[in-house]
Design goal:
This protein has 400 residues and is α+β, with helices and mostly antiparallel strands. It has a single domain, classed as Up-down Bundle (Outer membrane efflux proteins (OEP)), CATH 1.20.1600.10. The chain is built from nine helices and six strands. The strands form two sheets. Strands 2-3-5-6 form a four-stranded antiparallel beta sheet, with no helix packed on it. The chain has a two-stranded parallel sheet with strand order 1-4. The radius of gyration is 38 Å and the shape is rod-shaped.
Length: 400
């Protein structure tokens, strides 16, 4: 009987009744992989590439065949003396076909570059959320420690007030500050839940996600050569735009080239005789003004694409310099925390709390010390977040 009771208790404990919804646990790598599979922007970019690949089969532009019936008067057979029936086909220009094929190849390359850039943007968004969650988890732990301190201070103030050692104002101030810290801790928890919701939407899944985040730490980025900038995904996209514009120019120029046509026909005479025939034609553009204007406009488009690429490169180079400056600024602040700030905060927190409980420190002085320690710790977390977000932007800027 005793053994049966233990088995039932184990089953009830291990498998409780009621609906249990397991959260999907994902590391940053898992989340990135899932986002690249589900994000609509990645799917749309991939479909662009597929479309460009299909268009390569349309390089040869075959005009519709022309079926004709021709009637001519004949002095011997009257007004409808000669009737001809036939079909005529214009052939695509070899030069135009080559230009079309090159254009669609450049279009596919441009689509692939856009896919790469789109993926980098999705990866950046996922990484930023995970780094922000690491930051929020650190803030939550900090506020948990501060909450313990302030709750203890509030209890000490209550005891002192009951014994007549302090005023009601000090007691209420201690309780209010403890309440503010508890509220700040709750706010951080709500921010974590919001980030999880945003992450679920970014991953394209309906179920709740439990991100597996690493403790916040100082990341590193090293850029030895700015040539990384010209090899990045965004640069490849702009260069593909230039190549596509050049192919567009060659496509318009090819429209000025002649093409051939052939035809087969049968001629029926009024006396009942039937004669077959054939023809070969050469199609030469005569009204070239509009064709030349389109060609010249396409040539300007090439120059515009090159100027746009140069402008983008200059902007990205400036952005790189700004980000490297931001990285250095944050690294100086983080280094100061490790060298001095952490020790100051720890000493202010420990000695302040102890001296206040022993009655050797006034509440006003203790509050100043505690607020200073809190500012040091929060500033360190903010600097770490800023540093890591800057590094993510640097990596996205130079990623291939």
């Amino acid at each position: 009987m005793k053994n049966r009771f233990l088995i039932v208790a184990f089953v009830l404990f291990a498998f409780p009744f009621g609906k249990m919804e397991a959260q999907l646990q994902l590391t940053e790598t898992d989340a990135i992989e899932l986002a690249l599979q589900n994000h609509p922007s990645v799917k749309a970019a991939a479909l662009q590439t597929q479309q460009a690949g299909i268009l390569q089969g349309a390089a040869s532009e075959w005009p519709a065949a022309r079926l004709f019936q021709h009637t001519a008067a004949d002095p011997d057979f009257g007004l409808f003396g000669t009737v001809s029936f036939g079909v005529q086909q214009d052939y695509p220009s070899v030069k135009r076909t080559r230009a079309n094929r090159a254009y669609y190849e450049r279009l596919e390359e441009r689509s692939k570059a856009y896919v790469s850039l789109t993926k980098q943007e999705v990866i950046r968004q996922v990484r930023e959320i995970y780094h922000h969650l690491s930051y929020l988890e650190a803030r939550k732990q900090l506020y948990a420690r501060l909450d313990s301190v302030y709750q203890g201070v509030a209890r000490t103030a209550e005891v002192r007030y009951q014994s007549g050692e302090t005023s009601l104002a000090e007691k209420l101030a201690a309780e209010d500050r403890a309440g503010q810290i508890a509220l700040a801790a709750q706010t951080v928890i709500h921010e974590i839940e919001f980030d999880r919701l945003v992450l679920s939407q970014l991953l394209g899944i309906a179920e709740e996600v439990e991100p597996i985040v690493e403790p916040i730490h100082e990341a590193a980025f090293s850029l030895k050569d700015t040539s990384l900038l010209s090899a990045a995904s965004w640069a490849r996209l702009y260069r593909s735009e230039v190549a596509l514009a050049q192919a567009g120019y060659e496509k318009e120029a090819a429209n000025l080239s002649p093409s051939f046509s052939t035809g087969l026909f049968g001629q029926y005479l009024g006396n009942g005789d039937w004669y077959p025939g054939w023809e070969i034609g050469l199609n030469i553009p005569i009204a070239k003004k509009s064709l030349k204007a389109r060609r010249d406009a396409a040539q300007v488009g090439v120059q515009m694409a090159r100027a746009t690429y140069n402008d983008a490169y200059l902007q990205k180079k400036n952005a790189l310099a700004h980000l490297l400056h931001e990285q250095e600024k944050y690294q100086i602040s983080v280094r100061y925390y490790h060298d001095k700030g952490a020790g100051y905060a720890r000493e202010l927190l420990n000695s302040g709390e102890l001296n206040y409980r022993l009655g050797e420190l006034s509440y006003a002085d203790f509050t100043l010390m505690l607020e200073q320690a809190t500012r040091i710790e929060l500033q360190y977390l903010d600097d770490l977040l800023g540093l890591n977000q800057t590094l993510i932007e640097l990596e996205a800027l130079t990623a291939e």
